[in-house]
Structures are given as structure tokens and as C-alpha cells.
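Backbones bend. Our protein:
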Amino acid sequence: MRTEAAAGAGVKGMDLVVLADDEGNSVGIRVLGQHPSVSDGLAAEITVATAFVNGRLDLLLSRSRLEAWACALDRLEAGQDIAWMRVERGPSVFIQLTGERDCPEVVVEDVTVSMVTVRVPVDLPPDWIATHRRRLRDLTAAWERSG
């Protein structure tokens, strides 16, 4: 019999989002494993790293949030900016395809806890959307196998 602690163990240490460039700017979402208090959720963290600011923020990932990320990737591929997790509790992630510095910008906003917003310009490779679809597919498959 599988315990709740074992469910989600196969996803521990998986990266869902890695938006990074050669300048050292990055925004990432890493899955830490099964959420300790939500049986059908994954504990994760958002990390932001630049030459100016570094930070991390706890995040709960649910199946509906992963489905919303898949839809966000579709919109990004169609050339649209996205707001992911905006209407839910916790942090929001926005991706603007053309930012002020002629490259994509990722905005992480945490209005509920820290009340901080960080805007990170990231010069992304051409295949970044396909790479993130693959990451999502791998995470979803690993979660299904372990749960």
C-alpha cells in the first residue's frame, strides 16, 4: 500500500519552469514533492535570481494549476502575454513576450504574503515553449505514476 508521503515522491526535484538567460536572470518553479497538508497537491517553490535580487516563494501546485499552465503555454505560442494563477490565492506569474528591454519579461507578484512584485527580463531561446511543454508532460506523467 502506498502512503501519502510516497505519493508525489516521484516528482521531487523536478523543474516545471526554467526561464533563464546567459545574463544570469532566471525565474524557476521547482517541485519539492507531495504537499504535506494537501493530499492532491504538490509542494513547489518559485525562485527568482538576478544580479540585483534573489528570492524564493512557496507554492502549491494542483492539477488545475498544471492544466492552466498548459493553456498559458498555448496562449504564449499564439503570441499572447499570459497571467498564470492570477485569480487564485498565492503568487501570480505573468509573462510578457515583449518587455521594455526588447525581450520577454517575467513578473512574479506576491500580493497576499510579502506584497512584493519582481520584474525580470529574460532573453529566452527559440524553443523555450516546446521545452516547457515537455517539462509539464514529464511532471504530469511522474505524478500520475507515483500517485
The chain is about 25% helix and 35% strand. The beta strands are 15-20, 26-34, 42-49, 54-61, 82-84, 92-96, 105-110, 116-121. The longest strand covers residues 26-34.
